[in-house]
Amino acid sequence: MFIPIFCIVLLSSSGESRILDELTLVNSIGFDISESGDKIIGVICNPIFQKDAPPKNNVLSAKAELKKSILQVIQEKSANPIATGSLEILLFGKELTKQKGILDLIDPFTRDPRIGTAMKMAIVDGNVREFMEGNYGVRGNAFFIKWTIDTAVNHGNLPKTNFHRFLVDFHSRGKSPYVPIIKKERENKIKIIGVGFIRFGKLVHQISMEEAFFFKLLTDKYSRGWHDVEIDGYKASIQNINTKRKFELTKSSPPYEVTVKIHLKGVINEYTGIMINNKALGKLETKFEEEIKKRSLELINVFKEKDIDPIGFGRFIKSEDRKFNYQKWRDDYYKNLTVKVDVHVDIDEVGIVE
């Protein structure tokens, strides 16, 4: 009994002890590209907790050559060792993501066991340092950005996204990764303005949050979102949306054919007309079905043109077809894929009318 206890004491005593007050606890890291395009700008933000006041956001930045570790350069400016175990958000400048890509930059984080897979990733439309120097929320910038993304996922048009999902999509054949795009509107306000799609580590396409509604229908379960539909000159706001989505391989040999079945349930929380009767309700459901089908197919065609597959058709077909050839899929089959969208809309309740 004494031997295991001795081993535990020996192992625990050999580990490196760290005092929190003597560490720079980083909860957000950002990367940008210099104006000349030959250096990476790294930015870290760590909260400095104050008595009876919100934490102060301490921001440090440094430049380094593209192949050097930017964190090592930033460490030279910090009096205490930098600790990334509490990292909540990883940010990348839009121009950096378009020009140089982000694969080399995220590689160290994939190898760090202290980094949680639930960490968020986002692309910043604008200067990363200026974005991180804002004053968002009472718990610090990192938590505010994270909560903003979570809210957009749980109550809005943003599909589920985090560091783990990004890595799974990137490393799996037949699906392209995506990340939210955010922007600083004021000193204390940020906004998610779209979704960016990554190919070989670079940003190749982005869509608005209005388009993201239809993208989320194709990729994720939908709940508590909303969308406006117009009939006969009146607008209806359909909210509390709950959807189910299913893929069917309706042609199992090249050229493949996939049918996406979407069943949507919602309520009308606002209508600009006088009253919604059964006839108007039926027209509204039909109009919504037609719009979802049209906009979804438009998105799919754009994805095929950009040679990205964020919906995951390749992954799905591979799971259904044992003879699936990924190289032929990338070279030929994906371009010739036929996708049909079958939509059924049920509106259960009618709320406020103007």
End-to-end gap: 77 Å
From the alpha-carbon coordinates, what is the Rg to the nearest angstrom?
24 Å
Overall mean pLDDT stands at 86
Structural class: alpha/beta
Put simply, the count of helices is 11
Residue share in β-strands: 35-45%
How helical, in percent, are the residues?
A: 25-40%
Global outline = globular
Low-confidence stretches are 5-18
Secondary-structure element sequence?
A: HEEEEHEEHHEHHHEEEHEEEHHHE
Using DSSP, what is the number of strands?
Answer: 14
Describe the structure.
- With 354 residues, this protein is α/β, with parallel strands linked by helices.
- Helix content is 33%, strand content 37%.
- The protein has 11 helices and 14 strands.
- The chain has helices at 2-14, 70-75, 94-99, 103-110, 128-132, 141-155, 163-171, 209-219, 278-305, 313-320, 326-333, and strands spanning 24-25, 28-33, 39-50, 53-65, 82-83, 89-93, 120-124, 178-186, 189-199, 202-208, 223-231, 234-251, 257-271, 338-353.
- The strands form 3 sheets. Strands 4-3-2-6-7-8-9-10 form an 8-stranded mixed beta sheet. A 4-stranded mixed beta sheet has the order 11-12-13-14.
- A hairpin with a 5-residue loop joins strand 2 (28-33) and strand 3.
- Helix 8 packs across helix 9 (278-305).
- The N and C termini lie far apart (77 Å).
- Mean pLDDT is 86; it is low at 5-18.
Short description:
A hairpin with a 5-residue loop joins β12 (234-251) and β13 (257-271). It is built from eleven helices and 14 strands.
Q: What are the key terms here?
A:
354 residues, alpha/beta, eight-stranded mixed sheet
